[in-house]
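Table S2 (text version). Query chain:
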Amino acid sequence: ELHRGDRILVLPNAWDVASARIFAASPGCRALGTTSAGVAAVLGYPDGERIPADEMLEAVGRIARAVSVPVSADLEAGYGSGADEVAATAEGALAVGAVGMNLEDGTGSKDAPLYALEDQVAKVAAVRDVAERVGVPLVLNARTDVFLAGVGAPEDRLEHAVERASAYLAAGADCAFVPGVADGELIGRLVEAIDGPVNVLAVAGTPPVRELERLGVARVSVGSGPMRAALALTEEVARALLEEGTFTAFTDRALAYERVNRLLADV
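Corresponding structure-token output:
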């Protein structure tokens, strides 16, 4: 329901329980997503399905149990090459408490950057079948990396992305995710061409929330951006502490110790 109607869904992406609790404490938070890159980084892995699926699902479960809002799990390309493996990952996500799931069609390979359309459609359908069997109305956010991976000639990407997004929606996805697009005019064309809710990724240059809402975007997420911003602050603290010998980079902006403890008291 949060993906339909005039009001855009602003979906923060958490990378651990503390960040999830901070986002969920905001009166404007109606749902949360996880960030695969953020969770992987916290656990010592680079992004790109390098983290074992069970470790990712454990982190998703900890986040889902820590908040009262719905949680959508970023599960990359499903941690498996075939529909059966992806379906098992979706079942694992439901078992730990997620009620949404990102599934991307990017392979991470320069030679073949996208999974074959028919294979990806089969994965989407398999996830939908799992959700129906389990009895949870999983919100499947099907992502196409046509723009993000720069697939094909620039003038052909809009049509290609629309083709893939439309196929995923027809196969059972609830929302089409098209990251890599920040231009408002192009976002508007995507929304007009795709017959279903559209999710965009907020990056530098993305129009603000109210403009995205005007363009008809159903959902905007932030991916690993907040996590990387937190790391940038940590890098600033390290430089000030170890090169300048000063403490204000963290003493002036740190959450109070007592507040952090209260935030996590009942986890």
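Notes on Table S2: The radius of gyration is 19 Å. The first strand starts at residue 9 and ends at 11.
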